Amino acid sequence: MADVKVEEKQLMERIARILDETRTSNATHNRKLKELWAVRSKSPSTAQFLSAFSKTLVPLFGVQRRTPPAERVVRFVSAFACINDHEFLEGFLRFLLIGSVAANRTARFRACQIVSEIIMRLPDDTEVSDEVWDEVIECMKVRVGDKVPVIRTFAVRSLSRFVNDSDNSDIVCLFLEVLPLEQNAEVRKTIVLSVPPSNATSQAIIDCTLDVSEAVRKAAYCVLANKFPLQSLSIKQRAIILQRGLADRSEAVSKECLKLMKDQWLANYCCGNPTELLKYLDVETYELVGESVMEALLKDGLVKLSDGGSIRDYLSSASDENEDSLHCTRSIQLMEAEIALYWRTVCRHLQMEAQAKGSEAAATSGTEAAVYAAEASDKNDLLERILPSTVSDYVELVKNHIAAGPNYRFASRQLLLLGEMLDFSDTTIRKVASEFVQDLLHRPLEYEVDDEGNKVVIGDGINLGGDKDWADAVSRLARKVHAATGEFEEVILEVVKDLARPCRERAADFIQWMHSLSVAGLLLENAKSFHLLQGKAIESAELLQSLLIPGAKHVHLDVQRVALRCLGLFGLLENKPSKELVKQLRLCFVKGPSTISIMACKALIDLGMWHGPQEVDKATEHDFSLQPSDDKMTFTPIKLSETDEDLNIELLHLLYSGLQTSYWGKCLESDENESIQAVLGEGFAKVLLLSENYPSIPAYLRPLLLAKLINLYFSDESRDLQRLKQCLSIFFEHYASLSANHKKCLSAAFVPAMRSMWPGINGNAGGSSFVVSNKRKHAVQASKFMLQMMQAPLYAKDRQAQNESGGSELPETSEHLSLECGEEGLGIRIATEGLSFQMKKTPAEKSYVSALCKILVLLNFQSLEQGAIKLMQRLLYRVSESVSAEKDLVKELKQMAERLKAVDRHPDEELSQDEAKLIFGRLGLDFNLELDAPVAVPHTPVPCSTRPSRSRRRVRCEETSSDEECSPTSVQPVPPSAPGSRSTRSQRASKTAAMSKITAKVIPTKIDEDDDGEEESSEVTSEDESDQFTD
C-alpha cells in the first residue's frame, strides 16, 4: 500500500513538472505531449494515471484569473485528453463533470472551460460511449443557466458541437429559449455563433441584428453570411437584413453587412450583377432597400459603368432597306422594375458626383480646380451617354411603359423621376415635355367594376393616379419642366379648370370629381405661396366655392375625403382661414362617418397648429367671450352623436369632445388603420409639445389635455390603437425633459389624471372586482409613470436656459426648478387631494388615497423651498391621520417627515397663514389648512372609528408609592367620534401624560389592556414585561 502511494506521488511529480514547463510557451506543447504520453504508457494502469493526473490539476481549479500561463495549461490538458485513449478520456470527462457542479464558481468555470476545449478539439472518429456524452450534454444544459456569464459561455460552446445531431434538437430549442432572455452580450454572441442554420433559427438570428451590443450584431451578420444561403431566406428577411445592416450606427456592423452583400450574395449568387441582386429583393415592395443597396454598391465601386450599357439600349430603330426612306419604325423594349431602379439610382449618383466635383472646382483654383472640373465633365458625359439622346425619346419611352399596364407602373415611375436630370431649357424641348405633363395630369383614374356593376377606384382614391409616390413623381417632373416662378401653378390651374367644368355643370360622375380634386390637391400641396394662385385661369375663391366646398358636400364618401384633404391644404395656404372652409370642416367632423371625420379632424388640427386655435375660432365669427367664465376653466362637455348642427364652441373644445366620445368605434371598419382617437391623440401631443408657440391656448387647458392623453394611453380602450400608443410613448419620453413649463403642466395634470382613472370616484364606473382591480392597476401604473417623468432631468439646453434666466445664486450643477415645476408642488397637490375626502371614506376613496400616499412618499424635496417644506410637514400629519389604518404606509410617511425635518433650515420658525395661502395660490389650489395641527407624524396608527372607545389602560404600581400614583385609574368610555372629525386624539394625550409620569420615577410598571389595545405598549414596558399583557 505504501509502495502504491509512493508511486502515485512520483507520478504526480512528473506530471506536475511537465505541466509547469507548458506554462511558459505554446511552442513546447508538442514536445511535452510526447513526454506526458510516455509517462502515461509507463504507468501501471489507466486508473492510476487518471487519479494522479486529476490530483495534479486540482490547483488549476482554484486559479480565478484567466492569466496566459493558466490558459496555456488548459489548452495543453485539453490537447492531451484528445489523444486516442477513450478510457482515459471518459474517466477525465467524468472528473470534470464533478467539478462543473461544484459550489465554487472558479471550479465550475475551469471544469466547463476544459470540457469545452476538449469537445471542440476532439476528432470526429473518437470513440466515446453514448452514456458519457449524454452525461456531458445534460450537465452542460444545466450550466447554460448558471449565474456566472463565463460559465454559461463555455457551456454553450460545449453544446455547439452537438446541435447538428437530429437526436439533440432539444439543444437548439434551449438556445432559442435563452437567447432573448440572456443579459450578457458575450453569451448572446456565443449562442448566435453556435446556432445551426434552419428555418426555425433564421428569424432568431435576424432578430439579433437589432441587439444593443455591436459584437452580437456583427456576429449575426457573420452567421447569416456563412451559414444561410440567399435562397433559404424569404424576400422580407433579405430586405430586413440589408435595411438594418446598411443603416447600422456602427461602422463595423455596416461593413460586415456590406461584406455579406458583396462577397456572398452578389459574388456567389448573382455573378456580380447588381440587377440580379435587386431581383432577390423585390424592389417594387422594398424600394428604399433597393436604393440603399445601389447606393452602397456605387459608393464601394462595385457597379461597372464603363461597360457601354445605357437606357438608349431600350430604344432601337428599324428602317427600311432604302436608307433614304423617311419611314422608320421604332421598337421600345420594356424595362423590368429592377432595371428601371438600377438606372435611376445610377443616373442620380452620377449627377450628384458631378455637382460635388463642380462645387469643389469652384472652391479651389489652379491645377486642383482643373482636375475637379475634368472629373465633373467626365461624370456629366457619362450621364449624357446613359440618358436618352432626346426628350422626345424619353417621352416615348415613358409613354410605352405607362401603356403597358399596371405591371410596369413601378418602372414608369422610375422613368418619370429620371426627368429631373434632363435639360428643358430649350423652348421646343420644353413644349414637348409640357404636352407630356398635360397628358399625365389629364390621365383619368383607373377603376374596376365589381360584381354588382359598381365602379371601384384603384389606389388610395386621394392622390393623382391613386398613389402618393406617383403623384410626387408627376409633380417633380412638372416643376422641372415649368421651373419659372408661377408657371407651375398656372399650368396646373389650367388643368383644374378643364377637369372641374363638368363638376360645376353637375354632369360629372364621382370618378371625375375625384380626378379633378386630386389634381387640385397636387397643386395645393406643392404651391409655394397663396399669391401665386391669384390671377390665373381659376381664382382661389372660385376654386373654393365651385369645387372644394361642393366636393365636401358630395353624396359619395370618397369624393368627400379628397375634398376635405384639399380644404385642409387650401386653409394652410390662406393668410387667415375662411369662414366657409372652417364651418364645413367642423360640420364634417361632427356629422360625418368615421372616414370623413378622420379627414376633417386632420384638417382642423393642421389649421389649428398653423394659424393658431384662436384664428380658426375667429373665422367662425362666433363671440366666445360671451360664454360664462366657469365654462372656460374646463372643457365643455359635448355629445357629438346628439348634435344636429355646428356647435358654437371653440376648436379645442370641439376636438377634445372627440376624445370623450365613444360612438366613433362603432363606425370603424375592421381594416381601418386610423381612428379618431389616434388622430386627436397625435394632434394634442403636438400641441402640448409646441405649447410655447401657442400663447392663445389658456394655460389651464394644457393639464387637462395632458391628463386625457395619459388616461388614453393607459386605458383598455386604446389597447388596439397601436399607432396612437407608439406616438404617445415617444411623446411622453421627451415631453417632461424638454422644458420646465412642461413639468409644471405635468404636475398640474397628475391629480386630474388619477381622478379620471380611479374607479368608484369622481363619477367613474366601477364594475366587477376583476374590472376594478385592472382599472386600479392601470391607474397605479400611470401614477408611477408620471412620477418618473417628473423626476427625469431636463435636457442640457433647457437647463442652461434655466440657469441663465434664474438666479445666479444657484450652483452650476443645480437643476433646481420652481415650486410649480418641481416635486415640491406635486407633493402639495397630492397631499391636498388626499385631504379633500372625509375621514369616513368609501372603499374606493380609501384605496385612492392610499395610492396617492404611496406616490407621495417617493417625492424628494429640495432645501431651497423652505416654505413648501414647512407646509408639507403640516399636511403630512393630516395625511397620516387619514390613512392611519395602514401601518406600513404611516411608517413611510413618518420617514418622509424625518427627511423633511432634516432639510428644514429653520425648524423653530412657524409657517404663517398668509405664506400657506400664497403657496396654495401659486399652485392654483383652494384649500384651508389649520396651522394649529401638530407637525410630527403620529407614531401609532389608530384607525378612526365611530364605535365607542374601549376603556384606556390601567397602570398599576407594583411597589409602594404615593396614593395618587398607586390608586387605580378608571376611565369612562369615550363617546363615539363624529364622522370626518380631524381633532387630535385624547388617547394620544393620555398616553403622553402617562409616559411622562413613568419616566419621572424609576418604578417598574405593569400594563393591562384590552385585546385591541395599542400595539406600541412595548415602548412603555421592557421586553420582559411585555409578556405580562393580560386580557
Automatic annotation (TrEMBL):
Intracellular or extracellular location(s): Chromosome
Biased composition regions of type Polar residues, renumbered to the chain: 980-990
Pfam families membership: Cnd3 (PF12719)
Record keywords, A-Z: Cell cycle, Cell division, Chromosome, DNA condensation, Mitosis
InterPro entries membership: ARM-like, ARM-type_fold, CND3, Cnd3_C
Biased composition (Acidic residues): 1008-1031
Coarse class of the protein's main subcellular location: nucleus
Record flagged with keyword Cell wall biogenesis/degradation: no
Region (Disordered): 936-1031
Domain Nuclear condensin complex subunit 3 C-terminal: 516-860
Coiled-coil annotated spans: none
Stored SUPFAM superfamilies: ARM repeat (SSF48371)
Family that this chain belongs to: Belongs to the CND3 (condensin subunit 3) family.
Name the UniProt record assigns to this protein: Nuclear condensin complex subunit 3 C-terminal domain-containing protein
